[in-house]
DNA sequence: TTAGACCTGTGTCTAAGACACAGGTCAAGC
DNA sequence: GCTTGACCTGTGTCTTAGACACAGGTCTAA
């Protein structure tokens, strides 16, 4: 299987497959012509990687998990501990995005009723510089 | 004013100031000793940059805005149009994070009751590979 | 004058691929 | 057999917004 075949068969891009290959998450054989040749084992490996990515694991996490399982050990404890970490991060980012979204949408609606002003020596844009979010009561 | 003085006075890091300087958002004079010397104008410029970053503008956005205002034009129309774009992106990312958070927390609670399994030839980790989110009713 | 503490600019690194590009492959047509 | 063109390949570079490493400069106290 060539890189694009593999990618399409699992609904991803050739660049993504190449990326994982570069990091040695996938270890294709070399064809005579220098092209990389992916076996069925790589297919299921890639399937695993994509599932894990979809669940929020980083590529580095996945590398760890694969290493563990290649040693014959159960990766389950590692997997549980990693997802706990990632979930905490996701929660933080989520809260940050929530706040940002509120700020932005508040700014947008305020600004639509405000007039344009030319810049002055100490003011680039009054919309931004005078913005203060109305705190939730 | 030296880079760290400026940074601390506005609650940011020297690296951030250096970054903006590299991109020529700030244009300090050169001291005799080669150190960068920031004037009061740079202070208010940096203040503006930090406000805009805080509202979700990218550094490239801010560069555009500053350029516009340096030409004496009002940056307000640009600012409104940029924040509309950024808000849409933020909304998308927010929804993605919301979904991801749900998936992850669902996975975590499922997995806590599941046993460890050793890897097999076609299974790296059954937790991940057998995970299916229970769709919201 | 010298020691040490602190500060500086420059260069490199990060995540997870996307993109550019020079060259190779392969089937169709002659 | 040869050639054309379409498509594919691997490698290298680029992206964000800074953080970090580091060699060397500055500055204060002794």
UniProtKB/TrEMBL annotation, chains A, B:
GO terms for molecular function: DNA binding; DNA-binding transcription factor activity. SMART domains: HTH_MERR. CDD domains: HTH_HMRTR_unk (cd04787). Keywords: DNA-binding, Transcription, Transcription regulation. The keyword Transcription regulation applies. Pfam families: MerR_1. Residues 1-68 form the HTH merR-type domain. This is MerR family transcriptional regulator.
């Amino acid at each position: 299987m060539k890189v694009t075949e593999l990618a399409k068969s699992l609904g991803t891009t050739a660049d993504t497959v190449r990326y994982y290959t570069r990091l040695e998450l996938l270890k294709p054989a070399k064809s005579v012509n220098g092209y990389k040749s992916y076996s069925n084992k790589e297919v299921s490996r890639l399937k695993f990687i994509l599932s894990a990515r979809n669940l929020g694991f980083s590529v580095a996490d996945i590398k760890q998990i694969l290493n563990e399982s290649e040693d014959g050990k159960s990766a389950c404890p590692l997997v549980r501990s990693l997802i706990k970490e990632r979930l905490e991060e996701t929660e933080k980012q989520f809260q940050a995005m929530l706040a940002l979204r509120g700020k932005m949408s508040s700014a947008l609606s305020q600004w639509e009723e405000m007039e344009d002003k030319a810049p002055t020596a100490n003011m680039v844009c009054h919309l931004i510089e005078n913005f203060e979010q109305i705190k939730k009561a």
